[in-house]
């Protein structure tokens, strides 16, 4: 059973495609404006150098040229921007995967490790649910199965949503990247770029926070399941009360 993994991988694949499409659409819309603004800035710089309306040293002119070059390189080129942003996000995901591995929750890797571990946890909890139902009569067992499936479905849905939530915001912010990179050209608007970058970094760091929480949940739940032993060996329904406690804890 790989329900959480399926939803997470499907959602991330769609969000990656959506981010690329949005980036391309925004870049195509503002591309001409970026070229025009960069041309005007260069023209004004040369005019200022001739008439010395405002003094400008060589260092300022050099960094302005570097800024214009970087804007042209990343604001309208998805390949360059995606290679840069993907490298950073992959590094953060590797850190998150290492946190999961540190408590026995999986192996270092991308954030999909969380989804796989939650699928395993839900599968083990489902086994205990079946064992609990076998200790009851058919009516009570059916009611317990319905309640258990509902609780496990909510658990899986929340896990998938938490894993996808940060990617959703990152996809939206990446789609706005051409506009925000363009705003760095002017002193009065560069603060918007700083706020956009701050939000992007915050959501990119979110998987690390999730890693610490999820690793603890899967690690503790795994340890409790191991401590309980084989669910088929439970002699009465009272012996399976920790099962319900684990679902509520997760």
UniProtKB/TrEMBL annotation:
It is a multi-pass membrane protein. One of its GO terms (cellular component) is membrane. It is found in: Membrane. Coiled coil: none annotated. Belongs to the TrbL/VirB6 family. GO terms for biological process: protein secretion by the type IV secretion system. Pfam families: TrbL. Keywords: Membrane, Transmembrane, Transmembrane helix. This is Type IV secretion system protein VirB6. The lineage of its organism: Bacteria, Pseudomonadati, Pseudomonadota, Alphaproteobacteria, Rhodobacterales.
